[in-house]
Amino acid sequence: PIDASSLTAYLLGEEVAGPMAELIDWLRWVRRMAPAGSGGAAPQRSRGVDVLFAGLERRPDVLVERLTISGAARIGGRPVELAGTLTDFTTQPTLHGQPATLSLTASGAVPLKLRAILDRTGPTPRDELLADCDGLSLPALRLGAGGLAMAVDGGPASLSVSLLLEGDTLSGDVQLIQQQLAVTPQRGPASSPASGINASLRDAVARQLDQMPSLVTRLSVGGTLEQPSWALWSNLGPAVSQAVETAVADIAEAQAGRLLTATQAEVDEQLARFDEEIAAVAARVTPLVNGPSGAIEQLAAGLGAGASPLGRLGRSLPAAAQLLK
């Protein structure tokens, strides 16, 4: 049996490491834009006090209620145009009482909708990142760097991101679903152990993988912002594992059937040769057996004719002189 989780990490580990590191960089950028220590207590003054008249509330010195943002960025190595808004941004969020919200829409190769909520109203900073991309077009990929490689055709996919950074603790999920999937086993490099994998095995694995309707990959994120960690799960690993095991079993059964047929033919040939040898032996033994049997039958016939047994025996025996010669 092939361990499905190890196979998933082998096939997808390098592909998800880069985008995941890029996503963590986005969170770091958000934290730099709104530091965790912002909005603390008002600075101490050597003299003077603020007097609020009845019915008035203390408000922050600087408050951006709504700011339009546009620019460019690279997501997944592809250039995209960004446009959106930043609301409720202030240097004194505890006075404002509302978290800052960044909403961005990316157009181009990565049609992404991103929403970041930066909450500095309490004692613990809390940042939430939400992203959805329904019309993502994935390029063709070759998964697996060694002997067992899989070619995945490009196609439409959907991406969803839900990450929470509370204090320095990171949690959340990233999920990618690719529809209209086509996965084909590939021959490894000439120097790899799998370079000579039987073509029938690759074809059998390909037929099994044709039954997988979609590719689902999920990352469960944990750790801290400085030392993030994630656990990878995908239905690709179990599907490839099951496909390989089923293909190997089918090929083994077919090979066993061919061997059994060949063995049966050989057994039949040996039995026919054995029958010929028995017939030849019987042909040589039959006269030897039939000779004494005929003499006994003649003797029995003479006895049945009514003559004296001793007389007939004496007449049938040669003379004593002849016996002594």
What this model shows, in words?
With 325 residues, this protein is an alpha+beta fold. Helix content is 39%, strand content 32%. It has 6 helices and 12 strands. The chain has helices at residues 4-33, 93-96, 199-209, 236-303, 309-316, 320-324, and strands spanning 63-75, 78-90, 100-108, 112-119, 126-138, 141-143, 149-152, 155-166, 169-178, 183-186, 215-223, 228-234. It has a 9-stranded antiparallel β-sheet with strand order 1-2-3-4-5-8-9-11-12. Strands 6-7-10 form a 3-stranded antiparallel β-sheet.
- Would you tell me the overall average pLDDT? 76
Give the topology string: H per helix, E per strand. Answer: HEEHEEEEEEEEHEEHHH
Strand order of the largest sheet: 1-2-3-4-5-8-9-11-12
- Tell me the number of strands: 12
Overall radius of gyration = 45 Å
Helical content class: 25-40%
Number of helices: 6
Question: What characterizes the major β-sheet?
Answer: 9 strands, antiparallel
Strand residues, percent: 25-35%
Oligomer state of the chains in this structure: single chain
The stretches of 5 or more residues where confidence is low (pLDDT under 50) are 190-196
Give a brief rundown of this model:
This protein is of the alpha+beta class and 325 residues long.
Key structural traits:
single chain; 325 residues; alpha+beta; nine-stranded antiparallel sheet; three-stranded antiparallel sheet; 6 helices; 12 strands; 32% strand; rod-shaped
Describe the secondary structure blueprint for this structure.
Layout: H1 4-33, E1 63-75, E2 78-90, H2 93-96, E3 100-108, E4 112-119, E5 126-138, E6 141-143, E7 149-152, E8 155-166, E9 169-178, E10 183-186, H3 199-209, E11 215-223, E12 228-234, H4 236-303, H5 309-316, H6 320-324
Antiparallel strand pairs: 1-2, 2-3, 3-4, 4-5, 5-8, 6-7, 7-10, 8-9, 9-11, 11-12
Helix pairs in contact: 1-4, 3-4
